[in-house]
Amino acid sequence: MNILQQMIGFMNKEELRHFKLFANRTNASPERKDLQLFNYIRNSFPDYEESKIQEKLYGKGDKNTLYRLKNRLLEDVSRSLAMQYFETTEYNLILNQIALARLFQARNQSEIAVHFLTRAEKKAEELEIFELLDLIYNELIRLSQETLEINPQVYIPKRKDNRLKLNLLQEIDDVLADVVYQIKTSQNFSGTDYFRLEDLQKKVHDFTKDKAFRNSTQLRFKVYQSISRIMLQKQDFRSLEKYLLKTFAEFEKQKLFSKSNHEVKLQMLTYLINSLFKNGKSALSLEYADKLKAAMTEYNSMLYEKYLFYYYNSLVINYSQTDLKRAIEILHEARENPVIRKLPSYIVFIYINLATLNFDNRDFKQALRNLVKLCMEPGFKNLDIGLRFKVHVAELIIRYELGDFDFVEHKLEQLKKDFSAQLHKPEYGRQQKIMEIIHAMVMTHSLKKDKALTSQINKLISSRDSDEQAQNDLLNYNEWLKAKLLS
Fold it and tell me: How far apart are CA 19 and CA 39, in angstroms?
């Protein structure tokens, strides 16, 4: 999807109003082509036919004129958003003060430039935003060459000390970003890369030995994020629960949470909800889901939309254990929410949950419908290949339950071609075995009388770590096969 379409399509009412005021500040004519293009994109979103708007604005002539109009509109929308939000966060406010300092420095008005830089420095130090402090010290040291108002010997040691902190933080960020990406793309359905975790653990250990950081709020948050990711990737949910309960209580007691780090609070609550669920404590998990919802409304609901999906997910995972009907209702509600629909990746996981919950509820037709819709979603192809493979295997199981054996046989052959590289890897051995079993189940006249097949099934179910591996199945192969043997 084009960037301009996304920016305009996802604008809220306040942003639309601000843009109209911004655009009409010099010329309010309704015949303006840029506003006609803006309105067309907004009203037709997410659909967009360039030939249609081309003909309306310029006829069937050269498209270069339309491309220039689109570029100009993109610049105007960007400026409008930048103006609207330049001081909505303290981070943005600091950036704005740095920009103003550069403006006055270019005009040789060093006294004004120093004023804005010292204000920015004070706020960045207070919030421990080391990357902005580095930028501010660079500006002050550079400015010291043009004015006697600044003694560089004051700022050179500050810059050196700040860079030590910044470099260490960035080292952890680099590894942490890699771990987070692996978690997001695999959603715990794929294997763990322990080399990444070991690297992250080493950096956290080195980090916490540095005495200069022990009283740093930024450090404590960074350590929390790193330890949580390590435990999550290792699936050590019992340790994660204990750590989060203790750390969250400490952070609240010491009043470390603020508007500038509000997302850390919401993230901690989300992790805590999930770890409690994993440990079979749904009632307590739902209590923390209520706390998450309340926290989402803090600071004028600044992060409400970003965490709305996680709130819905916290309800679904818990009700899926106690009330399947209620869990499915929540998923349908989430699917229709305009905030959720903005991001294809959210819709993808809603369909995954709808498919699995309907399967558990033995509504196989609904499970299949949601699985087919899932595969048609734009975000599906961006999922981890292991997860996509499991989605297709889940479809085999559902199709088998519906008695669509011809499709199952055809699908099996297709999967062997599409995932041939994966089927040769040991980490996909479980998928290979279940595919072989499904093929044998289609071909046999009686599952119970087929000793070779029942032996094959029992071997998979009773194999080492089978129950642990089943937790990562999209549909639990063990439970499904046990039910088949008993039916």
Answer: 12
Instruction: Please tell me the distance from the alpha carbon of residue 266 to that of residue 303, in angstroms, as a whole number.
Output: 9
> Helices 385-401 and 344-360: crossing angle, nearest 10°?
30
* Cβ atoms of residues 66 and 53 within 8 Å: yes
Q: What is the pLDDT of residue 319?
A: 94
Residue with tokens 């093929």: 439
DSSP string, 296-323: HTHHHHTTHHHHHHHHHHHHHHHHHHH-
Taking each helix axis from N to C end, the angle separating 90-106 and 130-143, rounded to the nearest 10 degrees, works out to: 10
Pull the structure tokens for residue 387.
Answer: 């997860």
Q: Where are the alpha helices (DSSP H) in 110-216?
A: 110-127, 130-143, 152-186, 194-209
The pLDDT assigned to 192 comes to 46
Please spell the DSSP secondary structure of 424-483, one letter per residue. TSGGGHHHHHHHHHHHHHHH-S-TTT-HHHHHHHHHHHHSTTHHHHHTT-SS-HHHHHHH
- Render the burial of 366-397: b for 16+ CB within 10 Å, e for the rest: bbbbbbebbeebeebeebebbbbbbbbbbbbb
22 Cβ contact partners less than 8 Å away, ≥ 6 residues apart:
76, 79, 80, 83
Question: CB neighbours (10 Å) of residue 240?
Answer: 24
In whole angstroms, give the CA distance from residue 446 to residue 425. 32
| Per-residue b or e along 175-202, where b marks 16 or more CB atoms closer than 10 Å to that residue's CB | bbeebeebeebbeebbeeeeebbebbee
pLDDT at position 380: 83
- Per-residue pLDDT at 382: 77
Tokens found for residue 328: 């499915």
Q: Residue 100 and residue 105: Cα distance in Å, rounded?
A: 9
pTM for the model: 0.62
Which CB contacts under 8 angstroms, 24+ apart, belong to 365-372? Answer: 365/402, 367/398, 368/395, 368/398, 368/399, 368/402, 371/395, 371/398
For residue 71, give the H/E element and its range. Answer: helix 64-85
315 closest CA partner among 307, 297, 303, 327: 327
pLDDT of residue 114: 92
User: What is the number of other CB atoms lying within 10 angstroms of the CB of residue 478?
Assistant: 19
Question: What is the DSSP-derived secondary structure letter of residue 78?
Answer: H
**In this structure, are residues 130 and 93 in contact, taking their beta carbons and an 8 Å threshold?**
no
User: Quick one: tokens of 64?
Assistant: 């270069």
- Report the alpha-carbon distance of residue 447 to residue 74 in Å, rounded: 63
Taking the C-alpha atoms of residue 368 and residue 213, their distance in angstroms, rounded to an integer, is 53
Name the stretches of the chain with pLDDT < 70. 1, 28, 30, 176, 179-215
Q: Looking at residue 146, what is its pLDDT? A: 83
Tell me what pLDDT residue 188 has. Answer: 45
Residue 295 burial class via C-beta count within 10 angstroms: exposed 0-12, middle 13-18, buried 19 and up:
buried
Q: Is 32 left (phi over 0), alpha (psi -120 to 50) or beta?
A: beta
